[in-house]
Structures are given as structure tokens and as C-alpha cells.
Amino acid sequence: MSGVGARWSSGDRAMAAGKLILAWVALLWLLEVVDVATGHALDGFGVTPREPSELVDVVPSAFIHFGFAHLAANTVPLLVLGFLAALSGLRRFLLVAALIILVDGLGVWLISPDHTNTAGASGLIFGLFGFLLVSGFVERRPLGILAGVLIAAIWGGSILAGLAPTQTGVSWQGHLLGLLAGVAAAFAFRRHPAAPPELIR
Predict the structure, then answer these.
(1) 3 state DSSP class of 183
(2) pTM score over 0.85
(3) Which of 153, 159, 158, 154 is nearest to 127 (CA)?
């Protein structure tokens, strides 16, 4: 990028997106190291439903995991989907992520079963999947549509499996709410194409 106010090149965008999502995932791993070192003291930042005091954990819960295996399972999809979503702009990505995290966390607080503790980045992952799946169609961008189709082909099976209510130890509610929040974010933060030039005869 050169000059004040110059538009970022595709390489600039990719570099910025990569740095952001790598830093995000590094933070998750650092927090899990701290959690293990403190005897899982951070696990309390998960969301226990319908307790008013737990509302403060709606956002932190998206950054906490129950062990390294839990975090490792979320790392690759978060890296890939987060990077692709951030390519459309860091500010937009942060707005999309914030909406998904808030809607997902509040929804988990409202509808999850009693005596459960829900945490992890999977709600955000499902949300980013939903966002990438439909944003190309919403904005009528051929490359975005192609990306959505490819993402569905690669991740669709595991996403559907994660929505199954029969699974134990998995918050299908959080997954579903994250997915719906991501679809909503595609509409809420859609980019409007530039108006075509006026034709003068």
C-alpha cells in the first residue's frame, strides 16, 4: 500500500487477515495454557444458562476451552474460516465476529440445558461458516458464491454433524445459534456494490 488513503492491494488484505486470525488463535492457546497452569480456573468463564451473573461471561466464553483437545479441534476451522472472512476487511470481520459471539452467547444463556457450562470458539466457527456460505449470494459476487460453495463442500458434513441434538457433551444449541447469527451477519454487514456510471446520451 502506498500513499495516504490508498486502497489496500489483495496482498495487503491477505497479510492483514492472516496476522489478525493468527493473533486471535494464539490468544486462545495462551489462555488455555493459563487455564491448565491455574488448575482450570478459567473454565468458570463458560456460560451457565439463565443465571443473571453469568451474562458477563457471554463474550469471554468464546475464548475459553475445556482442554487442549477441545481447542485443537477448533483451531484449523477457525484459522481457515476466520482468514477467509477477514479478507473482506478487518473492521467488517470484527463486527461480524462480535455479532456472532454476542448472539450465540446470549442464546446459549437462554436455551441451553440446566446445569451445563458452555464455552469454546465453535459457535464463532459455525457463525463464520454461515456468513461465508451466504454472503456471496447476498452481495451477488461470483467469487463469494464460489467460495461459499467450496466451503459447503469441505465443511458442510461436519457442520451438519455438529447440529445433531443426539450428541453428548456438545452444545448443538450453540452451534445452531452461531450458524444463524452468521447468516444474519451476512445481511447486516453486506457490502453494497458501487453504483454503475450514469449513461448520458
Answers:
(1) helix
(2) yes
(3) 159
